[in-house]
Design goal:
tt1808, chain A; single chain; about 260 residues; 5 helices; 3-stranded antiparallel β-sheet; about 20% strand; 6-stranded mixed β-sheet
Length: about 260
Amino acid sequence: MAEAIAVQQELDEENGLVIPDVSTLVTEDDTPVDSIFAERQMDLLKECLYTGWTGPGDGRSFVAMSNVAFYFALRQPPLVPDVLVSLDVQAPEDVWMKEHRSYFLWEYGKPPDVVVEIVSNRIGGELTHKLVEYARLGVVYYVVYDPYHHLGPQALRIFTRQGPGFGEMVDAWLPGMGLGFVVWKGEYQGIWAPYLRWRDGNGHLLASAEEAAVLARQHAMEAQAAVDQERARAEQERARADQERARADQLAAKLRSLGVDPDQ
């Protein structure tokens, strides 16, 4: 394996390709998330994309990650978005390889299209240095969700590329994604809270795995009810036809008793 990698590196160098050495970069540091809610919120956003979304259309692929390092330069510390979504890229097959363990800009060839930061305190820099840095790196949509208003009265703020920086959006719809956001109050994995959710163009929530399972069961029950109803209708029709035949047979028998041939 090591020999194959060395040969590939030699070929890449001959072709003028420089492959960054990521062996010294920290891709996992076992730092826990800052709250149970944040962990649930990250899971919900990522899960609903993989459960209830097929991508932005035309067979385009996507990846969604939570709490994964976004490396944009070798000699600078990474950013670690709570959630990122990147279109038109493929998840690596071998996630154990060092160069596949984080979102390396040079591996994916582009910055994420959407970055979501969940505010847990007043010192995270979501509306200061992170805002500036994500704009500089070319992120298309930057979403700051502040459900408990640590940074101000607005729970949801969405920014999009405008020239070299970001401009704040009025609507919570992301045209380039074919998706939008809505704040939904409900229970997810045993915790009731105001969650940030994805929505489609019709205003419907992208379903979580549990919601999708409930919908599937509901649709199956509705389909079975329709089958049962059709079967009952068919049985009623057969019973009605049997009754008609019985009356006809009775009438024919009575006519014959009177000396009348019912077949003439």
